[in-house]
Specification:
Number of helices: 11
Order of helices and strands: EHEHEHEHEHEEEEHHEEEEEEHHHEH
Shape: rod-shaped
Strand content: 15-25%
Strand order of the largest sheet: 6-7-16-15-12-13
Largest sheet: 6 strands, antiparallel
Distance between the termini: 83 Å
Number of strands: 16
Oligomer: single chain
Structural class: alpha+beta
């Protein structure tokens, strides 16, 4: 308080004393208005509140006034002006809400200066608090609006991402494929796809983009777009890159580097050949490797290594092949699956995963139940699973092809 913008209200039935206080306050550069009682001053509260009130009113009236100001959520200090002769009168005024007391008559003008100086700091701090509170409320409102907009964007992105995925249950005349994706956030950095290349071959791949959320999800859009273009190219006869897993990885690598997103990913891409009963695949640093369970009770991780996608200009990937004799089950995972397996280290987690599949947990439902995936609400990482089998629901499978392995021996052997 101390500039011409400050307004002080005097409530005093003693017109002479009120005029004297008005003179003293105006001499100190305050705007002053006078009312002889609280009722006549009530109209002022409907417009703009004063910055301070000097009032010679009873304690119960001070209490009523202080309560009214509290309802207005405004800090307006009340200075009780009394010709008090007893300390109890001063205490009563303070207890009823007065910020300070000024003794009438106003012979000692230094007392007025002391009161104004004390009020000045309190009013300044109160106003700063009001400004900060308003700024905080504005910031919170903007933040809520931003979060709502972001949530809407992510919901839209999630719908788009779900649309990009193949049918959850795919079945051809000789192959059945299922998948599961559980994102740790709205959007997933894991992606998978499978489709028929021709009557004899089917491509299956699973990819895990570095990081989580929207930036990783954008890479999955690029991946889907590239896959669609490569399928169109083979129909047009302009390119057959998609028929070769290593060249498929090279195309992904090239397109990802061109985007300059600074993202990389791991990929396992395999082509299942029905007539030749074999799986041809390339590994772009994918981990863990897929598990292959054949009809003879053998269950093992596939072998293979390779560089990640999106880090090197001209990498090369090796081609691997494995036979698919008898009825088989191929299960692909992203590394998020290892995050939900309770074990001391990665070796033990891999062994646990192999044990589950060896014990007959070949399906999405069986693996989800064994790992309690439906019960986990906050995943540490995205999880993707793809199961591939030539054991179709409509097909009668010879009993020897469904033989279960000796779990302990198979795990030890691997």
């Amino acid at each position: 308080m101390g500039s011409r913008t400050e307004r002080i209200l005097i409530i005093d039935p003693d017109a002479v004393a009120a005029k004297e206080l008005e003179r003293l306050l105006e001499a100190r550069s305050f705007y002053v208005s006078i009312h002889d009682d609280l009722e006549s001053a009530a109209g002022l509260f409907e417009d703009t509140l004063p910055d301070a009130i000097f009032a010679d009113i009873p304690p119960d009236a001070i209490h009523k006034l202080a309560h009214q100001l509290d309802l207005e959520d405004a800090f307006v200090p009340i200075v009780a002006c009394h010709a008090a002769s007893e300390a109890q009168e001063v205490v009563a005024a303070l207890r009823c809400g007065a910020a300070d007391v000024l003794i009438k008559p106003y012979r000692d003008t230094s007392a007025i200066d002391d009161v104004l100086e004390k009020l000045s700091d309190r009013v300044r701090i109160s106003r700063l608090n009001q400004i900060y509170r308003q700024e905080l409320e504005d910031a919170n409102r903007d933040l809520r609006a931003g979060i709502a907009e972001l949530r809407a964007d992510q919901n839209a992105g999630r719908k788009v991402q779900l649309k990009m995925l193949p049918d959850r249950h795919y079945e051809s005349s000789w192959l059945a494929i299922e998948h599961l994706i559980k994102p740790s956030l709205y959007l997933s950095g894991d992606f998978l796809d499978y489709f028929r290349l021709d009557d004899n071959r089917t491509l299956v791949y699973i990819a895990d983009v570095s990081g989580h959320g929207a930036s990783s999800a954008f890479v999955t859009v690029l991946l889907k777009n590239l896959t669609n273009r490569l399928q169109r190219n083979i129909r047009r006869g302009s390119s057959d890159d998609i028929l070769y897993p290593d060249r498929f990885l090279e195309r992904i690598n090239s397109e990802l580097l061109d985007t300059g997103l600074g993202k990389h990913l791991t990929v396992f891409a395999g082509i299942i050949d029905h007539d030749e009963r074999k799986l041809t695949y390339a590994v772009g640093a994918h981990f863990p490797m897929p598990i292959l369970a054949d009809g003879h009770g053998n269950c093992r991780f596939l072998e293979g290594t390779g560089l990640p996608i999106g880090l090197f200009e001209s990498p090369e990937w090796d081609i691997y092949e494995t036979s698919l004799e008898g009825s088989f089950r191929l299960i692909l995972f992203s590394d998020g699956i290892l995050e939900v397996i309770k074990a001391k280290n990665l070796d033990e987690k891999e062994q646990r995963l192999l044990e589950l599949v060896s014990a007959g947990r070949h399906t999405i439902a069986a693996l989800s139940e064994a790992l309690n995936l439906d019960e986990i609400t906050e995943l540490p990482d995205d999880i993707a699973i793809v199961t591939v089998t030539d054991i179709l629901p409509s097909r009668d499978v010879p009993s020897d092809e469904l033989a279960q392995p000796d779990i302990a021996n198979q795990v030890a052997a691997n």
